Amino acid sequence: MLKKLTEEEFKRRAASADRVAVFKEFLADRETPVAALSRLDEDEEAFLLESVAGGETRGRYSYLGIEPRTQGAERRRGRLPRGHRADARGSSRQKTRRTYDHKKRKQKMKTHYGIYGGQYVAETLMAPLRELEAAYEAAKKDVAFARKFNGILHDYVGRESPITYAKRLSEHLGGAMILLKREDLNHTGAHKVNNTIGQALLARRMGKKRLIAETGAGMHGVATATVAALFGMPCEVYMGAIDVERQAPNVERMKMLGATVHAVTEGSATLKDAMNEALRDWVTNCADTFYVIGTVAGPAPYPEMVRDFQSVIGVEARRQCLEKYGRLPDEAIACVGGGSNAMGLFAGFLDDPEVKLVGVEAGGKGLASGEHAASINGGRLGVLHGAKTMLLQTDDGNILDTYSVSAGLDYPGVGPEHCHLHDIGRAEYAVIDDDEAIAAFDALCRFEGIIPALESSHALAEAIKRAPKLGRDKILLVNLSGRGDKDMENVMRYKASRASSSRV
């Protein structure tokens, strides 16, 4: 039975590495999972222990992790495997790195990517997640589901999206060709709708009557509200109060489409806080509610499911490059917040080692300033929103406030598959600051007559950096994940602020 522990008892058990099941309330930092107990049987290989609520002090002991075991007896006793020790904060350290063996797991779906991913959630959400896993596994094998999904993408979204050669920009830079995968031309103006259509179809298949979503820049909220209207389902969207202000046009679009928008004022009032509120809603209403997560984050099976629905981007782009240019691109570049558009693009080229995969994180005011959203380049291992990933956090495990001129990249974590691709060297992750992103925004407007989203502008800025250093026979493929209508006021405010600062 789950029980509340005193701080002293928790420390004692942490130090002796005994398995402790704890479930009580949210931790002080609010972004970590509610519960301490994930599924565990003699064939399971890992679980996470987490402290009871108690403010800053006890929050420091919330990351007691039990790493993969090599012997069933050790696993059943809940002891730390050989080579581990519990440090002063109760975290499990490993002397030698081990590889997680996915083949031993019972689940058919991919729940982990190396050491990342998992399902670190309250046990009240384990049943809904299992239900979702089963439904998605069945849907993937259903020809009728695939036909319906692809039909809506073609007839309603307007896929496939073209590849555009940014001729004038490329010639101005004097190096590699820059190609743009035009997700900005989709209905709703971004890549997000690819995923929301897939998840809404799955919700209907499961008999769910209500959709909820989180959103940062508002594009996922608009896409969710759009499919809710298409399928006649009520929809509620959680959005940080700061993002509500800087993305006002998208708020009005969501309302026009019939969605209820909740402005979240807790925490930093941005994307992570919106996701917290959406998770709380789902815990309470999971019987009739489907949570449409907008990125490749969250507990399994969301990272795999969102990647699969977005993989249409990379599959199309790969074929289009071969048909139009007779070859694959040298580099595929995409912005990374949670990372759904990037994983969608990367999915088409993962098996092509000659194609370099480049994710671009939001550098905000610079890594040294601490005001950024670059989780891979500036974070450390932790647990957020149900998954183990790289996070921007304090030494005590409390989530740091993030900053970016782009609301859609303003998130303290990143999808677990991105972390794994970084670790194994299959993808590299660069950082672009606000000034560079705004300059790229302006450049695409003036050279190509295309207004990009500020999120996409980060990827474009990295391509602008790289192109002059490469020969004219090289190809850089940039995922233009969305259009920038929503960002016009934000860009004008940013420029006005910079101009005012320069005059001081």
Explain this structure to me?
The protein is α/β, with parallel strands linked by helices and 504 residues long. The chain folds into three domains: 7-106, no CATH class; 129-135 and 191-299, Rossmann fold (3-Layer(aba) Sandwich), CATH 3.40.50; 161-189 and 306-503, Rossmann fold (3-Layer(aba) Sandwich). It is 40% helix and 16% strand. The chain has 19 helices and 18 strands. It has helices at 7-16, 55-59, 72-77, 126-140, 143-157, 167-173, 192-206, 219-231, 241-246, 248-256, 271-285, 302-310, 312-325, 340-346, 375-378, 416-423, 434-448, 454-466, 488-503, and strands at 47-49, 64-66, 84-86, 92-94, 112-113, 116-117, 163-165, 177-182, 210-215, 235-240, 260-264, 289-291, 331-335, 356-364, 380-384, 387-391, 427-433, 475-480. The strands form six sheets. A six-stranded mixed sheet has the order 7-8-18-13-14-17, with helices on both faces. β3 (84-86) and β4 form a beta hairpin. α7 (192-206) packs across α8, α8 packs parallel to α10 and α13 crosses α14. The longest helix has 16 residues, at 488-503. The protein is globular. The protein starts with 6 loop residues before the first helix and ends with a helix. Residues 17-107 have low confidence and may be disordered.
